């Protein structure tokens, strides 16, 4: 059982990565009650320093790290690392908040978007693990929750436009170096992605499954059903685009009840986690560059009803994939946890 205290000892696994850096930044700026922070990465980074506010923290290699006296561990170093080290942490009584897909689909492990299903957090007691969903799922479900509550969503069709930071620092480096090579008429040799990402759009994220969908697309199916409603059908196409930070999504939903578009707008205006930017006359709609970089909210716009069906609605959804899609969502989970695991 998680013990509520005044301050907590925190471990960040993957502290030198994009999400790890963002976790340190968000824990500090939101004044999470921290006693001690341990920054952990691979042995390659041992001895290097990461920033927590104005303090520099020395990075510790994960090999042989004991997790002694840690209360909460944020894992963001890939599925293999979570698979190997999360059980070592949980055996020591640490609550693991895991950013990888390693534990998301296990029944006894809650999969949490705090704006949608924070009530489920208490289920962590069985395994001491809380899973953070996939970035594309998180922003879509924050945007769809008010509509589901009012009109009951039956089907979701979604195409994602995913930034390269979703692949970590190596994705960002690949886009920057390919852009530089292209501008200088140099040869481009893809390495992180199977095809050139600079000045291109790739309809492939993660890996292919036997059913022809990609794993990223299937994550949106499984996670929507686990978090929002097991009866919703999801058709997803996940696409990587040459954007550094900020995922965008074109979402079309079909609902059981006819949609009253005014109440959709009202619900969004009154939702503290969502920013409505929808004003065609003023060219107002969210974009990844302007609204999905360094922001905490989920941005919605381009809201239109189907031309010929009262139960179909189109929305454009943008969020910062590193913050709301990963680090911020994890910190929000921790904030709920320390309220007493409501
Ligand atoms: P390191 O910098 O030592 O490689 P990103 O997603 O931005 O690429 O970051 C991945 C993070 O996961 C980094 O902090 C990286 O540390 C860490 N990481 C990768 N592989 C391992 C590993 N085998 N053990 C521990 N940490 C790892």
> What's the multimeric state?
single chain
Q: In what order do the strands lie side by side in the largest sheet?
A: 3-4-2-1-5-6-7
Number of strands: 13
Mean pLDDT: 97
Q: How would the global form be characterised?
A: globular
In this entry the ligands are: adenosine-2'-5'-diphosphate
In what range is the share of β-strand residues? 15-25%
Order of helices and strands: EHEEEEHEHEHEHHEEHEHEEH
Count of discrete alpha- or pi-helical segments spanning 4 or more residues? 9
User: Radius of gyration, Cα only, in angstroms?
Assistant: 20 Å
Describe the structure in your own words.
The mean pLDDT is 97. The chain starts with 7 loop residues before the first strand and ends with a helix. 30% of the residues lie in helices and 23% in strands. By secondary structure, the chain is of the alpha/beta class. Helix 1 (18-29) crosses helix 9 and helix 4 (135-151) crosses helix 9. The protein has a seven-stranded mixed sheet with strand order 3-4-2-1-5-6-7, with helices on both faces. The longest helix is centred in the middle third of the chain and has 17 residues, at 135-151. The protein has nine helices and 13 strands. The radius of gyration is 20 Å and the shape is globular. The protein has helices spanning 18-29, 79-91, 114-117, 135-151, 169-183, 215-227, 261-269, 288-291, 323-338, and strands at residues 8-13, 34-41, 49-52, 55-61, 72-75, 95-98, 129-131, 153-161, 233-237, 247-255, 274-276, 298-305, 312-319. Bound molecules: adenosine-2'-5'-diphosphate. Residues 14-18, 20, 41-42, 44-45, 62, 77-78, 81, 168-170 line the site of adenosine-2'-5'-diphosphate.
């Amino acid at each position: 059982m998680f013990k509520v205290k005044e301050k907590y000892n925190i471990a960040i696994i993957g502290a030198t990565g994009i999400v790890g850096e963002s976790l340190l930044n968000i824990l500090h700026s939101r004044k999470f009650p921290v006693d001690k922070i341990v920054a952990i990465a691979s042995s390659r980074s041992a001895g290097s320093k990461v920033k927590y506010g104005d303090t520099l923290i020395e990075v510790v290699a994960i090999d042989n790290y004991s997790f002694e006296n840690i209360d909460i561990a944020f894992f963001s170093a890939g599925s293999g690392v979570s698979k190997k080290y999360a059980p070592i942490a949980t055996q020591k009584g640490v609550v693991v908040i895991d950013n990888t897909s390693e534990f998301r689909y296990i029944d006894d492990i809650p999969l949490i978007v705090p704006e949608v299903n924070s009530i489920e957090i208490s289920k962590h007691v069985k395994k001491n693990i809380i899973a953070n969903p996939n970035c594309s799922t998180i922003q879509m479900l924050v945007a769809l929750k008010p509509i589901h509550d009012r009109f009951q969503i039956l089907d979701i069709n979604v195409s994602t436009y995913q930034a390269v930071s979703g692949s970590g620092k190596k994705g960002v480096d690949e886009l920057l170096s390919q852009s530089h090579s292209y501008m200088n008429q140099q040869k481009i040799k893809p390495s992180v992605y199977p095809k050139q990402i600079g000045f291109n759009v790739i309809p492939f994220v993660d890996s292919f499954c036997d059913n022809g969908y990609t794993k990223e697309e299937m994550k949106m199916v499984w996670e929507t059903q686990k978090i929002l409603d097991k009866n919703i059908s999801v058709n997803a196409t996940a696409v990587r685009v040459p954007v550094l930070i900020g995922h965008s999504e074109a979402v079309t939903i079909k609902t059981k009840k006819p949609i009253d578009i005014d109440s959709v707008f009202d619900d969004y205006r009154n939702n503290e986690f969502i920013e409505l930017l929808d004003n065609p006359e003023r060219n107002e709609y969210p974009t990844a560059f302007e609204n999905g970089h360094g922001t905490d909210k989920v941005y919605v716009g381009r809201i239109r009803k189907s031309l010929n069906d009262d139960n179909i609605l189109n929305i454009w959804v943008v969020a910062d994939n590193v913050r709301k899609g990963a680090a911020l969502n994890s910190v929000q989970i921790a904030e709920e946890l320390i309220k007493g695991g409501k």
